[in-house]
Amino acid sequence: MIYIFNDVPYNNIFSLAKIIYKNYNSFSKLFRQDENLLNFVKEQDKEKYEKLIKISKLYYPDDVFLFKVTYILNPFISLRIRDEEFSSYSDLGKKMLLSSPDISSKYFPLIQYDLISYHMEMTGFNKKDEELFLKVKEIEKDEHKQYVYFYLAYLLSKKTTIIYHSEEYKDIYSFCYYILKEEDDISSLGNILSEASFLKAYKDFSRDGKSISAYLHLCSQLKNSEEKLTIFLKKRDRKD
């Protein structure tokens, strides 16, 4: 049996799986609705067909569903999601950091649905580098998913610098110098940075952890001071 997509014939599920990420919108519907496609998979590999049917009944977002489908059909291809392909886990980590201090909505499903460890297991990477795989599995369990996003981004990229608005700072001191020089509202910034997931993740990943802990403590104190001043002013206004 041959399956035809966009006038191109495919005679095996391995070659078909390679083009799924490039045709995200089409395949998100086809793998749920097209009987010809499902029969094609079934004829090629009944066990994979049954796995596909099983996950199609779960309420996964389209990108997560197709990610899982891709590696069920062909566990030998590179890491890819939606319309993007990555040359390595390091490549993925670096691209995840480009959005710092924000998270990328495109890559966040990889974190929400534990897809990085899933990919490692499906492709056999978990046996090639068990230490990294177990570390990823451990971090994925954390319920604070924004923290997980940045920790895994640093872990996979092996970056040793602080990434902030696409700029790199070699350590917390360089970062502080920039913040004090560029930002006008330091009190509000202290409030934000004291809770910043990217800094907390970097603190736990970096050798510079103690210095960053001290910095986050100062940020939290700045936040507390601002709150106390606001309360004081409100009380004073009531008395007046």
Topology overview:
Layout: E1 3-5, E2 8-10, H1 13-17, H2 24-33, H3 35-44, H4 46-56, H5 62-73, E3 80-81, E4 84-85, H6 89-97, H7 108-112, H8 115-123, H9 125-128, H10 130-140, H11 145-157, E5 162-164, E6 167-169, H12 172-182, H13 186-194, H14 197-205, H15 209-239
Description of the molecule:
With 240 residues, this protein is mainly α. Helix content is 66%, strand content 7%. The chain has 15 helices and six strands. It has helices spanning 13-17, 24-33, 35-44, 46-56, 62-73, 89-97, 108-112, 115-123, 125-128, 130-140, 145-157, 172-182, 186-194, 197-205, 209-239, and strands at residues 3-5, 8-10, 80-81, 84-85, 162-164, 167-169. It has a two-stranded antiparallel sheet. It has a two-stranded antiparallel ribbon with strand order 3-4. A hairpin with a 2-residue loop joins strand 5 (162-164) and strand 6 (167-169). Helix 3 (35-44) crosses helix 4 and helix 13 packs across helix 15 (209-239). The model is unreliable at 228-233 (pLDDT under 50).
